[in-house]
């Protein structure tokens, strides 16, 4: 029923999921960065292997939980379904602005986070000025997703 969208044609109307390989890779990079500071010798190899198994297992579990997130953009609005949370439906007339955030690693994976700033209602992110935003995390082709959502809005965020 749900499939991963990678091109703009796949984004509209078809549910898509976040890129999770990047999340696992971040965990592996953190382990690699911290490993030189551990005292690893023949007596502690078993402890180090247990440490690796636990931390990489947690990174894999986080990736699997993140993989359960689904986003769908259609003519009715944006639908967001996350594990352990109630689904959120954002109508276009409730969108104030849309922006993209892409880190260095996200650019390598051609993914990023699209922030949909809401006029009112609940979102997954609280803004400094007191507003709310919905975060579409690690979506493929975030600029295309932002353009698609922006095309559904009228001038200056009016529908």
The number of strands is 7
Order of helices and strands: HHHEEEEHEEEH
Helix content: 25-40%
Structural class: alpha+beta
What's the pLDDT, averaged over the residues? Answer: 85
The stretches of 5 or more residues where confidence is low (pLDDT under 50) are 1-9
Largest sheet: 4 strands, antiparallel
**Overall number of structural domains:** 2
Question: What are the main properties of this structure?
Answer:
159 residues; alpha+beta; PH-domain like; 2 domains; four-stranded antiparallel beta sheet; three-stranded antiparallel beta sheet; 36% helix; elongated
Explained architecture:
The structure is a single chain. With 159 residues, the protein is of the alpha+beta class. The protein has 2 domains: 8-18 and 69-157, PH-domain like; 21-65. The chain is 36% helix and 25% strand. It is built from 5 helices and 7 strands. The strands form 2 sheets. It has a 4-stranded antiparallel beta sheet. Strands 1-2-3 form a 3-stranded antiparallel beta sheet, with no helix packed on it. A hairpin with a 6-residue loop joins strand 2 and strand 3. The longest helix has 23 residues, at 45-67. It is elongated. Residues 1-9 have low confidence and may be disordered.
Summarize the structure.
The chain has 159 residues and is an alpha+beta fold. The chain is built from five helices and seven strands.
Please render the helix and strand layout as text.
Layout: H1 8-11, H2 21-34, H3 45-67, E1 70-74, E2 77-81, E3 88-90, E4 95-101, H4 104-108, E5 111-118, E6 125-126, E7 132-140, H5 142-152
Antiparallel strand pairs: 1-2, 2-3, 4-5, 5-7, 6-7
Helix pairs in contact: 2-3
């Amino acid at each position: 029923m749900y499939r991963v969208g990678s091109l703009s044609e796949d984004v509209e109307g078809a549910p898509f999921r976040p890129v999770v390989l990047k999340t696992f890779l971040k965990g592996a990079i953190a382990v690699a960065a911290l490993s030189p500071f551990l005292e690893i010798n023949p007596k502690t190899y078993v402890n180090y292997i247990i440490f690796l198994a636990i931390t990489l297992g947690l990174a894999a579990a986080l990736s699997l939980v993140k993989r359960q997130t689904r986003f769908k953009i259609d003519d009715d609005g944006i639908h967001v379904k996350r594990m352990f949370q109630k689904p959120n439906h954002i109508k276009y007339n409730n969108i104030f602005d849309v922006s993209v955030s892409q880190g260095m690693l996200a650019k390598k994976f051609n993914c990023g986070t699209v922030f949909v700033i809401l006029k009112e209602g609940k979102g997954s992110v609280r803004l400094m000025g007191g507003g709310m935003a919905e975060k579409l995390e690690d979506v493929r082709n975030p600029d295309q997703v932002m353009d698609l959502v922006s095309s559904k809005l009228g001038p200056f965020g009016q529908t």
